[in-house]
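Submission sheet (multi-component)
Chains listed below:
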Amino acid sequence: MPEPSPGSRPAPRPTLEAVAERAGVSRATVSRVVNGGAGVRRPLAERVRRAVEDLGYVPNHAARSLVTRRTGAVGVIIAEPEVRIFSDPFFSQQIRGISRELTAQDTQLVLLLVDGPGDYDRIGRYLAGGHVDGALAFSLHTDDPIPALVRRAALPTVFGGRPGWTAGADGQAVPYVDADNRGGARAAVRYLCGLGRRRIAHIGGPPDQTSATDRLDGYRDVLPDAEPELVAEGAFTEESGARAMERLLLRCPDLDAVFAANDLMASGALGVLKARGRSVPDDVALVGFDDIDPVARTTDPPLTTVRQDVEGQGRLMARLLLRGLDRQREGGPAPEPVITPTTLVRRASA
Amino acid sequence: MPEPSPGSRPAPRPTLEAVAERAGVSRATVSRVVNGGAGVRRPLAERVRRAVEDLGYVPNHAARSLVTRRTGAVGVIIAEPEVRIFSDPFFSQQIRGISRELTAQDTQLVLLLVDGPGDYDRIGRYLAGGHVDGALAFSLHTDDPIPALVRRAALPTVFGGRPGWTAGADGQAVPYVDADNRGGARAAVRYLCGLGRRRIAHIGGPPDQTSATDRLDGYRDVLPDAEPELVAEGAFTEESGARAMERLLLRCPDLDAVFAANDLMASGALGVLKARGRSVPDDVALVGFDDIDPVARTTDPPLTTVRQDVEGQGRLMARLLLRGLDRQREGGPAPEPVITPTTLVRRASA
DNA sequence: GTGAAAGCGCTAACAT
DNA sequence: ATGTTAGCGCTTTCAC
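Outcome: structure written.
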């Protein structure tokens, strides 16, 4: 029986050579056909394709990589502070977007989880080791060691979210994809103004994340004269939003609107508002940010919020990197940052 | 200035050859040193190591892979029905465990997200393409196409969770890692019995997942004569647990205990019980399964539940695969399944 | 348009 | 213990 018995070695995969022989052509011709078939006459190409099919030929990636000097893989770095990413729908969507785009470009996604401070070393070596053609990283905090790593590895990298340090040490622009946080915040606050609200508070995120500071900046763009008491700092968690809301209520009992820097905090704030007997949106109008999937539409009332296309951002990150690879290979410039638009989604909370 | 100007090509990486020349030895010797240095005299090895250091030599992975026929990477397949995995703490922990183990073994994690039925084809080609040495897959449903793929690709694979089909088409055992679902369920139900409960109901998971059927089997092991009315089917979601609880209450108003096949459903059931005025644990004792992180300890009352070490399972999957790789390479047998123990965690709900 | 030939950087026999 | 040598499977000039 030709059935491989449990103890037999795996069958050796057919090589270009084998295909060439079967098709009665040279290896070079097969190679051309396999790689798009440019410059090969139809009948020949057909014969080759048939031979490939018959033999079940699959190109050997290592051999190809050895000569092309491309791995066809990119690393996605997920740093320690973000280990929870997988529980965060935000990241999961972004990864999904990245995966979609990479897949479409026949590029592999190598997941690099940073699992502790000691891991940065390992990741750095890996990146420098030429295992991947480029990297994607999420730059959440200003003191992240990742940027230095990829810089040292001289590896093309695109960041998700505007990095805290805007330019590299050598003045090169750092490529990143980010939502228009500032513009979205402006839209939210303007909307509240348009509703006739006069005492508009803000619950901000942690000041070491640009998404938080950018949204705060947007708030200030519209309300440059807002009293400092109207701004409370949270940590992007529901709990922290609740605490911030309590402080705000204490400091400014007369507030009539709140713009929270994300939906989670908005949800926390909503709970406190209701518990304190303030009706939303009648007494206090509430706007969030992100339009995060279950949260924003399942609160009571559902949240008016600023939507950003997270999956699209992921796709964009991958696309930017892949485009940049070809260019940088030729010594071209790194790709420019991309800011994706946001839209205000009206629901019942404002 | 030796600083690479923005328009310069990336510096070519030093090769074995360069190191050999600098150290005044042959390529073979350098190779030996780089790969552990067995059989090379101290002083020589030292000289080589210094040269490696000086030149910043990093082995070319493609070249090595070409000759060793190992890629040093494994694919982690995540199928469409589980796209939410990233929001599921269960999977995120498992991935973390996998990542930890692979990292420790210097093996890369290539993430393969199946993004639709059409993707199975692509994944199949990829797996057959020799890009990875093995695969890790989660076999949630009985009709999953993944098993067929890896089988066709003749790729060593370890499953997370017992697959629905216990043996391969050729009678080979399928390697997997799973919690002792049946034993854990038995422990839970026995515990309820020990509490003096006499009408113990069960909320089961979807019957096409072995984790659900195994837990049901465990329940039946202890209560072989339980009336069918005491068993309701859920879908492992909080909502489905609530619905199942409602049905149970209708059919068996006199029940005094519930064993739910996971914590999410237990949480849903808890809500219904409280809404119906049944106090937990006084009127109805409740036990869950998984000890899922925020859920089990934050319900009111906190859940008594069956804990499984999910991260450990992930690590085990990776370890099993890597060990199996070496063996199977020599035509050895696939690794045996591993069942990890569960422990009953007593909290306030039972 | 097609083929011949020269490597890509490395490991593993095989010599010594 | 170390060096020599022959490829691994592929792409890519360069002739024809």
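Remark: Chain A has three domains: 16-59, 73-178+311-340, 181-307.
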